[in-house]
Design a protein that fits this description.
21% strand, 202 residues, Glutaredoxin, 8 strands, single chain, alpha+beta
Length: 202
């Protein structure tokens, strides 16, 4: 076979490999954004499904306990709590997210716990969150927090900073679900497990 023929075969093989690795991501993205797949599986029973999902750019995360640990918003399923600074209510929700994360068992490696704080930096939380290993905080340095908060605004009169909700973001950065402040952690866990079972991403 000629060298030109070998090059052509190599290109075909490379294209097939790329398709094999990217097609699950593309399919999942299409299903979540353009079908009623989740609703048909009863995903709206507990949390509120956000339709259409709202894309959020990839953001860097800071671990207040392990400052050298570098993570990002994309790549895992994220439970996100939004507030100004981490007061008692915030700590209560950090605890809830930790308990949900523990209950996820074998799925826990696919999920991360995230805080979005608009008036407090992650380096101020090391003592407060010392018992909450793995808790991530969005790095708001040089970030337009108002534009980001708009993504979490479910209605025109909604104030995400006072809503007290826990939000779910998929590994591609799509804001998909929200849960009321009084949502049962078991319900959040069940919905999250269904999402993970329905998806091969993250």
């Amino acid at each position: 076979m000629s060298e030109e023929g070998n090059d052509k075969n190599n290109k075909i093989i490379l294209i097939l490999i790329v398709i094999a690795f990217t097609s699950p991501l593309i399919l999942s993205w299409y299903v979540f954004n353009y079908t009623n797949f989740l609703e048909n599986r009863g995903m709206s029973n507990h949390g509120e499904l956000i339709v259409p999902p709202r894309p959020i750019v990839d953001l860097s995360l800071i671990d207040p306990i392990k400052a050298d640990r570098k993570e990002s918003l994309h790549g895992k399923w994220s439970m996100v709590y939004v507030t100004r600074s981490c007061d008692k209510l915030c700590v209560d929700n950090v605890y809830r997210m930790r308990q949900i994360h523990i209950a996820m068992d074998k799925h826990s490696l696919r999920v991360q716990k995230v805080l979005l704080l608009t008036q407090q930096h992650a380096n101020e939380l090391s003592d407060l969150l010392v018992n909450y290993a793995g808790q991530q905080v969005i790095n708001t340095d040089l970030l337009d927090t108002n534009a980001l908060l708009d993504k979490f605004r479910l209605t025109s009169s909604d104030n995400p900073l006072e809503a007290g909700r826990i939000y779910i973001i998929d590994p591609l950065g799509n804001l998909m679900m929200s849960f009321e402040p009084d949502a049962n952690p078991r319900d959040i866990m069940q919905d999250l497990k269904k999402l993970l079972r329905a998806s091969r991403i993250g």
